[in-house]
Amino acid sequence: MQNMFKSRLLVLLIVAVMMLLSACGSSSSSSEAKAGSGGSDKLTIGFSQVGAESEWRTANTESVKSAITGAGHELKFSDAQQKQENQLKAIRDFIAQDVDAIVFSPVVETGFETVLQEAKTAGIPVFLADRAVDIEDDSLWTAFIGSDFVEEGRKAANWLVEEYKDHEGDVNIAELQGTVGSAPAIDRKEGFEEVLADHPKFKIIKTQTGDFTRSKGKEVMEAFLKDEGENIDVLFSHNDDMAIGAIQAIEEYGLKPAEDIKIIGVDGVKGAFEAMADGKMNVTVECNPLFGEQLVEIIESHLAGEEVEKRIAVEESVYTMDQAAELLPDRKY
Ligand code: AHR
User: Fold this and answer.
1) How far is CA 154 from the centre of its chain?
2) Is the pLDDT of residue 88 over 80?
3) Cα–Cα distance for residue pair 124/122, rounded to 1 Å
4) Best residue for ligand 1 mutational test, from 50, 57, 107 (most atoms within 8 Å of Cβ)
């Protein structure tokens, strides 16, 4: 009788120890804590987007949102309206709601260490979409999907070098930069200047931010024209929206865009194809915003415990005005 009592006590003890061990395992504080929770389960995903500043952004928001909901997951969306403080708040809200994953496209490159550390401590993986962060500790984010902005800047400059290969004398460039401190503004400028460093005839005589918007692009181009007028040979705009705004300013000033001033944009949005088909813009360097489905697959794989690549680049091209009319009907964004 005493023996039977002892063996029952032993079984109870073993069960209690096993329960304790499994409880300890589930309260791990690393960002891998949620990995292995099952890729096919319904997930709750928080998405903090930059804003709605451009045609590109609208297409990107739609791509990511529809991929998340289309896969049957719950989406918590927040528009930062181009303000970092809104983005910090949104990420903290997602952490408080204990989402399964956070997707965010950082407005600027710096200043996210603390909040990303908070996400890591809470065991929530963070996926960078479109824009990267400038952070020493890469373990604070799980994966990045987006474009190589430096390469986009190089492509823009390479087009220019080719276009002016027989030209002697200086070529004066006005540059419309994207949002100050943002990855695309920093990197596109870097890539563009890197190529032009070997071609001293190209001179950037004006450069200022137009914050990636049409209205600012127009306003800043008006100021450039007031200062330099017909001295400007080329406009390099960090996105198509600012280029489209600038085209309006050039026409109002009485010059012909694409002829008197060559226009280079980045993104490859429909608006740029329309401008090129109308003979008002010379070239656009593609920046593909339609990576929503790929992003969701990466999140699901990570949460299913699979290894995912740290950096995933999207494929992109360069389009010139002579191709525009033919390609316009099939442009997806
Ligand atoms: O981060 C991508 C850039 O952001 C796009 O080129 C621009 O249009 C957008 O605002």
Assistant:
1) 18
2) yes
3) 6
4) 57
